[in-house]
Design goal:
Elements: E1 5-8, H1 15-30, E2 36-40, H2 46-54, E3 61-62, H3 70-73, E4 81-82, H4 87-96, E5 101-105, E6 111-116, H5 117-126, H6 140-147, E7 150-153, E8 163-165, H7 170-174, E9 182-185, H8 189-197, E10 202-205, H9 213-222, E11 225-228, H10 233-241, H11 263-270, E12 275-279, E13 285-290, H12 291-295, E14 301-305, E15 321-327, E16 341-344, H13 350-361, H14 367-380, H15 391-404, H16 408-420, H17 428-433, E17 436-441, E18 444-453, H18 457-460, H19 463-477, E19 481-488, E20 493-499, H20 502-509, E21 519-523, H21 528-532, H22 536-545
Helix pairs in contact: 1-13, 1-14, 2-16, 8-9, 13-14, 14-15, 14-16, 20-22
Amino acid sequence: MARPIYVIGHKNSDLDSIASAYAYARLLQLQGEEEAIAARNGELKPEVRFVLERFQVEPPEAIDDVYLQVRDVMRRGVICAYLDQPLLEAGQLLQEHNRRSMPVVDADNKVHGIIATEDFAKLFFNDLDPRSVNRVPLKRDNLVRALRGRVLVEGRRTLGNRVIVGAMQAETMADYVEPGCLVVLGDRENAQLKAIESGAAALVITGDLLVSARTLTAAKQQGVMVISTAHHTFTAVRLINLSISTQDIMNREFDYCRPEDPMSEVQRTLARRRSMPVVDSEGTLVGYLSRTDILNARAKRVVLVDHNEQSQAVDGLDEAELLGIIDHHRIADVHTNRPIMFRADPVGCTGTIITGLYHEAGIAIPREVAGLLLAGLLYDTLILRSPTCTTKDERVAAELAEIAGEDIEQYGQEIFTAAAADLSARSAEALITSDFKEFTVGDTKFAIGTVETASPAAIEKRTPELLTAMQRIAHERGYASLLFMLVNIIDMECHLLIWGGEQAIAEVLNAPLQADGHSVMVEGLVSRKKQLVPLLARFQASMSGKTGAL
């Protein structure tokens, strides 16, 4: 199975992240990389749902991390034995497929145990125990299958678990026969009749020898099953021993794992076990995992879009194979152990860069791709009003609008209207973290949340509630300062809430603190990337001398 390439943006993926992931995954697919998959992290925001529905695009796959999971490594199409299947057939399956073990399942494919090659050795040595010799759980269908026998007479007597080889005088044999037992013998008619008379439930006639009419008649009258097999006595006895159900010898205590389990955790179990089944939440077999599979495992492949910060990356990136980065932010701290494709341009959104990649590849941009890219561009640049917007963004917006059949201003307003639809219903923490990024300057951790709206008044009324939530988040996550940008896209100003280093940050911004002591109004401050993030080093320097309210 080809390894997928996950194209994904930052945590809590926003519109530009999702649009860019979808557009670049489509580009890779159009270039022959069929395994490219658009992915996202976090819940779909209202504006994202609006755009996806408008262009009838399925949401990108939601993933929480890119750790190597059992599902990425496990073997599918697993050979398995069934509970009532003769042990002989289970052993043949192991041999034919060169396996050391396999799961044992019921008719609904639920796992009940494991059968391994060493269990056959235990069976052999158990047969040498005088307490168990000649005792075999007998089942009619399994006997016929294991012996490849022909049933000459169907029986009515109940099979027990005693097996007798009639290699003695008929009268002597009668002393050993007990009700329900199975007697293995040749074509000696007197011995056959004596076994029937003594209470045997079944006769196995070996070597394809003829059975007399007298024996068959007696067997029918007494309800004794008669099976004919081509095997000679020695082999027949061995096969009868292997006719027991697989469940009679399987290991009922076994380790298992689930498809979503991280491989780093499962490896500890495989250090003790050579292999184990993979089951779903209902115990149904979905795969099998062995030490060999671990040796052949390869990390997930990832392309990052719309960020290059380790703290913003989906969990597990350190274990993944990073193929490339496409971003419009500052160069940060994602490290690789080999050269990768890295595309970073100083433009208003990642979608502008990806539009250029379509041009470079000579591939026409599909309408739905253009619609998503345009949406991400308009949202990131506040409908081309943000200081982050470049002339290149404006040209790309015009091109994408023509392909998508959208009016730039009207489409942009509809996107922001959709974004504001549930703002009042969100919790304070959800508002703060819906578009949220962490940054580290030296040993100081910052975080910045952003909400852009044409109607900020409803959110501003919740300032005390927001500050309480900010205090809790900053304390729990260890931020020296947590900032929340409430951007008014009509008046192009920002109501900036601050928890941690309030006075120092206000001085750097040259804006007086409001009466609440935790906020400032800054005209023209609308971009986190271009206007606030570049000031983080100055915030840190100012805070080191003036910590402000904490």
